[in-house]
Amino acid sequence: MFRGDDLGWDKQSRTGRAFSSQNRDNGFYSHALGSGDFREAAAIYKDWYVEPLFDYLDETLDDANIVLALLMRYKQKVECYRKSDVLKLYEDDTTRGETNLKWHMFEFLFDQGLPFHIEPTSATGEPDIVFLNGTDHPFAGEVKIFDPEGGKGATDIKKGFSQTYRYCLDYNEPLGYLIVFNVSKKQLSVKIPSKPDGIPRFELNHKTVFFVVINLYSKGTASTLGIAETVTITEAELVREVEESTQANS
After folding, report:
1. 124 shares its domain with 235
2. Which of 31, 99, 124, 143 is most buried, by CB atoms within 10 Å?
3. 3-state secondary structure 16-84
4. Is 234 found in the same domain as 154?
């Protein structure tokens, strides 16, 4: 992980007062880095700050890109070829339906070459946490069912967002993932921004939660179903849910 003691911040704190109290052009490398030579100071700065920060960001972004790409691949495969099969996993045992769909997704990720192990609990609940083997970075995620007719509606999705955000805080991770299996004929619309990749994301306090909806309802055709009713969740509602959850846990 990215730790201050690895970057020499202890030494920086000891010299901070000397640095802040002087008014010299070469003060940074004379006091903050403990050297009067600019070339030597620049090399120290690169070793302490630039290279560790670059390595941390490079590793984190690589992990995030892999996870997100595989989640979108899973969504496309299920929606195009496996809707009925995956929906049946839920409908055959609705009490364990969410768990069955979760493990179906984990199996796909594993088969695609994403090695991981499951962390069963965090400080605030039982998340669907996957630690990627060979790194310190967890896939901090939550799986939810959207089924308003079965009592799993917008409130559950908002709580899922809040839980995923809390897991990012618990594990000190910048990224989290909320995966929603929509088993209803109703459409789910979350009014949050998306980047050019088209994946909605919720950003708050330097934490980003990606929102992936997998639509499973396949009974009937577009002509027989007509225009689907849409359930909408706004960004303001998500912020309010996070704030209320944070206050309740503080």
Report:
1. yes
2. 143
3. HHHHHCCCCCCHHHHHHCCCCCHHHHHHHHHHHHHHHHHHHHHHHHHHHHHHHHHHHHHHHHHHHHHHH
4. yes
CA–CA gap between residue 88 and residue 94 (Å, rounded): 10
Domain region containing 217: 69-249
Domain assignment of residue 17, yes or no: yes
Question: What tokens appear for 27 in the block?
Answer: 């003060």
Q: Which of 36, 46, 39 is nearest to 8 (CA)?
A: 46
pTM reported for the whole predicted model: 0.69
DSSP state of 152: B
- Count of domains in the chain? 2
Beta bridge partners of 116: 132
Q: Three-class SS of residue 7? A: helix
Report yes or no: 158 and 191 within 8 Å, Cβ to Cβ.
Answer: no
Q: Are residues 165 and 224 in the same domain?
A: yes
CA distances from 61 to 37, 67, 91, 131, 214 (A): 35, 10, 37, 15, 24
Per-residue pLDDT of the chain (250 residues; tens, 9 = 90+): 323 333 343 444 444 455 455 555 555 555 445 555 667 767 766 666 666 654 554 454 444 577 888 899 999 999 999 999 999 999 999 988 898 998 899 889 888 877 666 655 544 445 455 656 555 566 778 899 999 999 999 999 999 999 999 988 888 888 889 999 999 999 999 998 887 667 889 988 889 999 999 999 876 555 555 577 899 999 999 999 999 988 887 6
Residues 110 and 192 in one domain: yes
Contacts of 106 (CB under 8 A, 6+ apart): 116, 118, 130
Q: Are residues 206 and 87 in the same domain?
A: yes
